[in-house]
Structure to design on (326 residues):
């Protein structure tokens, strides 16, 4: 049990300081820990950028109170920004490609946001373009643009990274995390490298995603079901810093799905597909540390479980792989 906390005046004050919990089924000589981001008030890692970026945009005068945040998002970012906007006296509009989970869109609306859908085939690029079109028509609006705004990375450099290092007294050998915008991994990674230049930084993407092109590889672009990570077009991923990354680990949808089910069955973790992929990759890195093929300063691997499976029950996340609708 955690210790009793002081009463807080806003739910925004509960963003961050999430628990770090061991992942089991790893070699005995290597510890793997996951940062459980579903403990945030909007139940995902994206509450961090919602709170941090909205506050910074107000502070810098890029938006005035009463203005509108317009953001292209797979959903979790929308929920994070919707909470922050509401609590800080702003409006919010989210542009979401159709394929993303119903639950997320319902939650954004419940928080008072407007949701606009763009066709799935236009990918995230279509949502980004539409958000900018809307912003040019709406006065006192801003597109925080999580895919290119350095404040995204800064959020994790300022919060997630230090929290992990505090919890482990700085003894982190490897950081392995999924990349959607890549803000999470770049922020933690930069913090990690400043603490120890030999820390291994591993980016995780689904098979079918093409982040590997940043490392001069030629992965084929294909469909994938894993939600929240991966890219179809590296040109839209302006935050990814190849020099900060040791490797890009591809995880198949099937392996991610098997792992998210294992995490529920064996570890009491109700996490979604991007966490399944992160866990597979973190355990692979732990195996490499254990068998001596990867040298790191400490035998401790840290990963991030970005959100909860409850958000994807309507997509059959706990059904068979074939029935799972991604
Ligand atoms: N998992 C899920 C479920 C997400 O929504 C996101 C954000 N798109 C990520 C992982 C990846 O986080 P980031 O954008 O910081 O790379």
């Amino acid at each position: 049990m955690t210790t009793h906390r002081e009463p807080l005046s806003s739910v925004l004050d509960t963003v961050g300081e999430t628990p770090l919990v061991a992942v089991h089924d790893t070699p005995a000589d290597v510890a793997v820990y996951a940062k459980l981001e579903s403990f945030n008030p909007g139940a995902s890692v994206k509450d961090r950028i919602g709170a941090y970026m909205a506050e910074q945009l107000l502070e810098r005068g890029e938006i005035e109170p009463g203005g509108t945040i317009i953001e292209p998002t797979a959903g979790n970012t929308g929920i994070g920004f919707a909470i922050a906007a509401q609590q800080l006296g702003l409006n919010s509009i989210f542009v979401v490609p159709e394929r993303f989970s119903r639950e997320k869109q319902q939650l954004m609306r419940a928080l008072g946001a407007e949701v606009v859908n763009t066709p799935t085939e236009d990918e995230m690029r279509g949502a980004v373009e539409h958000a900018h079109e809307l912003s040019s028509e709406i006065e006192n609006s801003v597109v925080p643009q999580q895919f290119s705004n350095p404040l995204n990375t800064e959020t994790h450099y300022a919060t997630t990274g230090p929290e992990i290092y505090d919890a482990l007294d700085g003894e982190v050998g490897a950081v392995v995390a999924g990349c959607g915008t890549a803000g999470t991994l770049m922020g933690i990674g930069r913090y990690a490298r400043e603490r120890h230049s030999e820390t291994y930084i591993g980016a995780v993407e689904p098979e079918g995603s093409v982040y590997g092109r940043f490392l001069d590889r030629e992965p084929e672009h294909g469909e994938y079901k894993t939600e929240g990570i991966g890219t179809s077009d590296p040109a839209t991923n302006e935050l990814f810093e190849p020099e900060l990354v040791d490797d890009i680990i591809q995880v198949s949808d099937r392996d991610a799905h098997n792992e998210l089910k294992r995490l529920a069955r064996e570890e009491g973790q109700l996490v979604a597909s991007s966490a399944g992929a992160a866990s597979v990759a973190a355990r692979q890195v732990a195996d490499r540390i254990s068998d001596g093929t990867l040298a790191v300063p400490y035998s401790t691997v840290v990963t991030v479980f970005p959100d909860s499976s409850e958000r994807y029950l309507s997509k059959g996340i706990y059904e068979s792989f074939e029935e799972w609708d991604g």
User: Anything to note?
Assistant: The radius of gyration is 19 Å. The mean pLDDT is 95. The beta strands are 20-23, 31-36, 68-72, 91-97, 114-118, 141-142, 174-178, 200-206, 247-251, 300-305.
